[in-house]
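Input set for joint prediction.
Command: fold jointly, output tokens.
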Amino acid sequence: MMGRRPHGWLGARRHDKADDSNPEDPDTEGEHVEISVTVNGTAHQSDIEPRMLLVHYLRETLGLTGTNIGCDTSSCGACTIHIGGESVKSCTMLAVQADGADILTIEGLAPSADDLHPMQEAFRQNHGLQCGYCTPGMVMAAVSLLEEIPKPTEREVREGLEGNLCRCTGYHNIVKAVLAASGQSVS
Amino acid sequence: MTATEERIAELAMAEYLVPSPAEAINLKTDHTVTPSPSNPLAVKGIGEAGTIASTPAVVNAIVDALCQIDQNTTQEGSAQ
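tokens >
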């Protein structure tokens, strides 16, 4: 019954919930969509509103509040997660578009409860944060960056993280942390 | 940040621009070791003092420079 559906909106099954539908707007109110996603290795099936953003699904439906919302307009990157190994701003995407996807959030990055991911460890060692709000998104974006460019130059790190804003402008140590995580010595 | 009709004009971070990592420069930090003469403890303030003081300092420098070429630099045109 729950065969693998094509990825994305058209693959999600729509069904109406008559009990909470709004008679004035029957097309949107009360209509739910069923999605199934894998988040940090755990499979989830949820009935959600079609308009729900992926970041709201992660935070509110699944309770994974490590993914922050900084701007809601895809400008700041605080909500960066991985979908199929690639970094994505989860406020840019509807949850239904993630149907069938394999999602990794900051909560699932560390290999175990006692160990940090090398990127998290590098941020810790180099104090790659000030207030910490951008940190989950920065870490997720940085992990994705190193998968693409394993030994980036300082300029490549800065350009690679351009979509992630730190309003403390604490970029110095963030860049240092990413270079350290890539195994390169930092001054 | 700009205000138009008592409202903030920049409604999102796409308009209210802050530096991204690409614009931020690599910083080298250092320490000053000169005691302040202005108080008995010889201590200096920390925090955002540099941010607050730097804007008027830059504006004062511009005003000073423009005064030397007889440019009026205040709204009232009363630069000395």
